[in-house]
Amino acid sequence: MNPDLMRPRAIMSAVPRVLSCVCVLLVTTDLSFAEDQPLRAGASRIEITPAQPVTLAGYASRKELSQGVHDPLSARAVAFSQGGNRLVLVSIDNLGFYNGTAEPLREEILNACRLQPSELFLCAIHTHSAPTLTLNPEKGHSNNVQYTKWLQAKLVEAVRSALDRLEPAEIGVGSGSSPVGSNRREVVQDNTGQTRIALGRNPSLLTDREVQVLKINGANRGELRGALFAYSTHSTSLGPGNSLISGDVHGLAEQFLERYLGASVVAPGFAGASGDIDPWYRVLPGFKTTHGWIPEPVLMGTLLGQEVAHVLGRIQKPVTNGPIRTAIQTLQLPRKKAPETTDAAAETAPFVMTVARVGDVAFVGLGGEVFNEIGKAIKTASPFPHTFIFTHCNGAAGYVPTSSSYPEGGYEVQTSPFAPGADSRLVDEARRMLAALQSAKESSP
Ligand SMILES: [Zn+2]
Predict the structure, then answer these.
(1) Residue 443: how many CA atoms within 13 Å on its side-chain side?
(2) What range does the domain containing 193 cover?
(3) Is the pLDDT of residue 33 over 90?
(4) Which residue pairs, CB below 8 angstroms and at least 24 apart, start in 139-147?
């Protein structure tokens, strides 16, 4: 990568304000005015590779500090504006917003950029080779606390930069297919003949191979500005033995695209519904990291990026440009029973869902990691012709397995805070929130 191309200009600060987002919020608009307005879009990329060694997130067994950088981490932002409404989609090369970091990171951006809570999708690609985020010195290494504070300012810079670049734009949508991800719930047998589900590979189970692509072109000269994509896999091809910083599959796909399409194009990647999906290939045990690029993640990222480029080339017609509408809600989903408690509040656990539309294109941001079947069900239930699914978005509530997977067990079921039934609630709520975005004039419920 050319590091000079990764540092957008700094923008002056805006007036901070206090916002709360633990509520439903529907943005209201007079569409008779708004639909006459052109859609505008802007994109930015900013490097967020840590300068110091940090602990890497995603594997509890990995305690040591990072030992170098395999490939750089970035934050990418795409902003849309139409008729006074805005939407900002941010993708960061990180695991996710654990240790309660979603709210403070979001608040900083919302205040600085004067965004409504529902106008910001702050999402992570779920690479397991990026810094653990924490603002609490008791929950992480001091270098990680320092990094997270620094990241807070960098994210504001990235969003401001995207908003500052808003220009008339057209968007198009396409869909491809990639075999990079595999269902990871492998059935293994112990020496007594008992079977159980282990983290492995199980190509006979369902996955979601769809590669969702959003193309953003300038409206005046037709130049390509953004290539947003979503794909359902964990970014874990480096595995727990890795101690180098990397964006892994999604990050390397982003980097491939930006090299291929040119540095003026921003290519934010998003993790689709991938709670039960891992990349098929993982680095072999005992791999060496001293010779530059490691084959497996680069191979996986390049294959995914290549499919995005392929889909991009086939998108010709723009889709409807407006209006923009957004909503955010903290759902209360059924929680696993704790037998010792009689507290009614303990029967549910929170899960943040954010939805938005830009014309005929819908976005669903899920604040946790959900099984691929749930993402597919939301796409099918959506009243919109195109519905992008982003996970690790605006929250980090943990796994939401399908109800049918609970009797089988496995890592995701054991660690999930949620009870069977959470999956259908998520699909119902997504359908309901998306349907509300469709009506011509919204009012706050
Ligand atoms: Zn995960």
Answers:
(1) 1
(2) 3-10+29-325+398-424
(3) no
(4) 139/99, 140/55, 140/99, 141/54, 141/55, 141/65, 143/50, 143/52, 143/53, 143/54, 143/55, 143/65, 144/54, 144/55, 146/52, 147/50, 147/52, 147/54
How many A from CA of 321 to the centre of ligand 1?
34
Q: What is the pTM of this model?
A: 0.90
Strand order in the sheet with 224-231: 120-124, 85-92, 74-82, 40-47, 167-177, 210-218, 224-231, 269-271
State in Å: Cα 411 to ligand 1 middle: 10
Task: Place 298 in a pLDDT band, splitting at 50, 70 and 90.
Answer: confident
Q: How far is the CA of 275 from the centre of ligand 1 (A)?
A: 6
Instruction: Tell me, in angstroms, the distance from the centre of ligand 1 to residue 200's CA.
Output: 14
Based on the structure, what is the number of domains in the chain?
1
- pLDDT for 37-70, tens place per residue? 899 999 999 999 999 999 999 999 999 999 999 9
Distance 369 CA to ligand 1 centre (A): 6
Ligand 1: distance of its center to the CA of 104 in Å? 22
Q: What pLDDT was estimated at residue 338?
A: 72
